[in-house]
Structure formats: structure tokens, C-alpha cells
From TrEMBL:
The keyword Transmembrane does not apply. Residues 1-21 form the signal peptide. Residues 28-231 form the Asl1-like glycosyl hydrolase catalytic domain. It comes from the Eukaryota. PANTHER family: ALKALI-SENSITIVE LINKAGE PROTEIN 1. One of its GO terms (molecular function) is hydrolase activity. GO terms for biological process: fungal-type cell wall polysaccharide metabolic process. This is Glycoside hydrolase family 128 protein.
Length: 231
């Protein structure tokens, strides 16, 4: 989990929230506030910021942004066997009834990935059963539903296919999140593959970055991807 700028395509995430090259209402933020750097919270919600929404890998809004104009997008991060009740569904429903502007939700952070790399490591059949129980009912409240946010590895496509098979028609996401860590050419190719595989869903880029690169190279990568996403 890393603070980053995002934008639904599409949704853009950047490891460099500085020097935004363009302005877009698509841009949001994936960010977990840190007590070590509390002044960072003011940057994202400042008058000069063009961010419009955020998520924090959880389903309760960050206390730093409770009075913010940023729209909160809840996420059901993972799932476990034997979980009782519907805490995600109950929380989001309660927030909406209390007046919160929740129009999108996200589901399952890298369920095909291991915990050591930030993945939620959820079997596809368990994710499908949890989705039907805790996420699909939100459609009746007018909420748009995000598909599980798998990794950019080939295993991501396999996991998603297994997920939809296990759903047996009971899961109807509106958009599919994309995670990618690599160069621009690989990112563009991966996005194209996702769009070709799921032509009826919007694509959101909810995590991406260029690992192990210096500042200048990363800034160039950010500018290139920002322009690409905006187009």
C-alpha cells in the first residue's frame, strides 16, 4: 500500500503527486494517512488539488478527510472463511443512509497475490460467495461496483475467470480495476488486454508505478501515462 494519485480511465495512480501535467475530474487518490506525516493530508485536499475522490484500502473513510470534498470509495480488501455477518455491506449502507456520497465501491485487493506483496490471497470461489453476499446488494442503492483488483501478472486473468465462473452470473461489476508495475509500453499493452477481455466494463487504473527508477525517469513515466489516460 503506497500513497499515490489515481484516475479512473480511467483512474490514474502516480507515485509522483507533484507537477500534474493535466487536470482531470477522473483523478483520485489511494492513500493511508500516516501519523508520521500529518501535514501530507492537507496537500491532497488543498484548493490547488485536482483530486476528486480517494480510497484507503478499507470501508470506513479516513478521519483526516471526514470534512473533505473528496468522495470516499470504500473497499472490501479481502475475505476469510467463516466470516459472520455482512460488515462491509452494513457499513456502506449505513454511510449512505447517513448522507455520505458513495457512488462506487472496490473489491478484493490483489486476491491472486500473496500477503508478502500486499495481496489479499483470496480463493476465487470464496471471493465470489463474499461478493454475492456483501457487494452485489449495493447495486440496489445505485452504487457502481468494481471487480476484484487482481495483479498485472497472467495469474490475474486466470483468477478473474475463475471468479466469474464461481459467481455463476451472480456478480455484475460495472468496472474493472487494473494494477501494473512496469514500463509504459507494458502498461498500455496490459490495459488493452483488459479492455479486450472485458469490453463491457470501464477500466480504472487503481495502482501503478515504475519500480526502481530515479526521479527524472519516474517523472517522465508519470507525464506519459497521465497524458495517455486523459486521452
Amino acid at each position: 500500500m503506497r500513497p499515490t494519485i489515481i484516475l479512473p480511465l480511467l483512474t490514474l495512480l502516480s507515485t509522483l503527486p507533484l507537477a500534474l501535467t493535466t487536470s482531470s475530474s477522473k483523478r483520485g487518490l489511494v492513500y493511508v494517512p500516516s501519523k508520521k506525516h500529518p501535514t501530507d493530508d492537507n496537500i491532497w485536499d488543498s484548493p490547488s488539488s485536482d483530486l476528486t475522490w480517494y480510497y484507503n484500502y478499507g470501508y470506513e473513510p479516513s478521519s483526516s478527510f471526514t470534512s473533505s470534498s473528496l468522495e470516499f470509495v470504500p473497499m472490501l480488501w479481502g475475505a476469510t472463511d467463516g466470516q459472520e455477518g455482512t460488515p462491509f455491506l452494513d457499513s456502506v449502507t449505513s454511510q449512505i443512509k447517513s448522507g455520505a456520497n458513495i457512488t462506487y465501491v472496490l473489491a478484493f485487493n490483489e486476491p491472486d497475490g500473496e500477503a508478502s506483496t500486499g495481496g489479499s490471497n483470496v480463493p476465487a470461489d470464496l471471493a465470489a460467495a463474499t461478493w454475492i453476499k456483501q457487494i452485489e446488494p449495493l447495486r440496489k442503492l445505485g452504487v457502481k461496483l468494481g471487480a476484484p483488483a487482481v495483479t498485472g501478472a497472467p495469474s490475474g486473468f486466470t483468477w478473474l475467470q475463475d471468479f466469474f465462473t464461481a459467481c455463476a452470473g451472480g456478480c455484475t461489476p460495472d468496472f474493472v480495476p487494473v494494477h501494473w508495475y512496469g514500463n509504459f509500453e507494458g502498461l498500455a499493452s496490459h490495459v488493452g488486454q483488459v479492455m479486450g477481455t472485458y469490453p463491457n466494463m470501464t477500466v480504472w487504473i487503481t495502482e501503478y508505478g515504475l519500480p526502481n527508477s530515479d526521479l527524472a525517469t519516474t517523472q517522465t513515466f508519470y507525464n506519459q501515462t497521465s497524458s495517455y489516460f486523459d486521452r
